[in-house]
Amino acid sequence: MNDNNKEHLIPAYEKMMTRVEQTQKTATTKKSLRQHIESATEAAVQLEELTREEAERIGDYLRRDLHNAAEFIVTTERALADWMRFDLTLIEQPLLNMFSLMVDQTQLELENLAESARLATEWNSGEIVGLGTLYCENCNHALHFHQPDYIPACPNCGATQFRREINENEAE
User: Fold this and answer.
1) Which residue has the higher pLDDT, 98 or 61?
2) 20 to 30 Å CA-CA from 151: which of 21, 29, 57, 140?
3) Cβ(136)–Cβ(154) under 8 Å?
């Protein structure tokens, strides 16, 4: 993947988070997070900020990250800081507030839909990921993301598949 002509996707991820937060705050009817993300995706396409494929991909990345964070909180009963595995003071407060708000809504949705909350748990190089830590499937090297960014190949071994790790000792 040629990242040079796709750098606009990282700010698009952040803009989509902002749109989702705004629609959550101003919605007159109760919508699911999925519906808010779909609205943000449509807005990006209609405003010609992204192609439909790009907007849907960014929506998928955002949905995946939020569901994974909420699933961690629900299954381990631990805090968002534990999921990220780094100091929350490293994140700009507006970005953290936005992500936390969406994780809270996702957490509620997951608690109500526990059986259908099983989501893909694989991240690949070239995809965009939000906040948190990913681990190389091959060598377990940790990659920390303090802001949305592209997932690189593992700098330790060159592998391209990653996961979020929840081991039993940490979940207690």
Assistant:
1) 61
2) 21
3) yes
Q: How far apart are CA 14 and CA 121, in angstroms?
A: 21
Average pLDDT for 86-112: 66
Q: How far is CA 42 from CA 22, 38, 46, 96, in A?
A: 15, 6, 6, 24
H helices present in 3-126, as ranges: 9-26, 33-46, 52-76, 80-84, 93-112
Tens digit of each residue's pLDDT (9 = 90 or more) over 104-156: 777 666 666 554 433 456 789 999 998 889 999 999 999 999 999 999 999 99
**Beta-carbon contacts of residue 79 (< 8 Å; ≥ 6 apart):** 73
Query: Could you report the per-residue pLDDT of 21-56, keeping only the tens digit for each?
Result: 888 777 777 777 788 889 999 999 999 999 999 999
> pTM for the whole thing?
0.62
**Distance in angstroms (rounded) separating the CA atoms of residues 112 and 88:** 28
Quote the CA–CA distance of 57 and 63 in Å, as a whole number. 10
127, burial (CB in 10 Å: exposed 0-12, middle 13-18, buried 19+): middle
Please say whether the beta carbons of 68 and 164 come within 8 A: yes
Query: If 0-12 CB within 10 Å is exposed, 13-18 middle and 19+ buried, where does residue 139 land?
Result: exposed
Give residue limits of the domains in the chain: 3-171
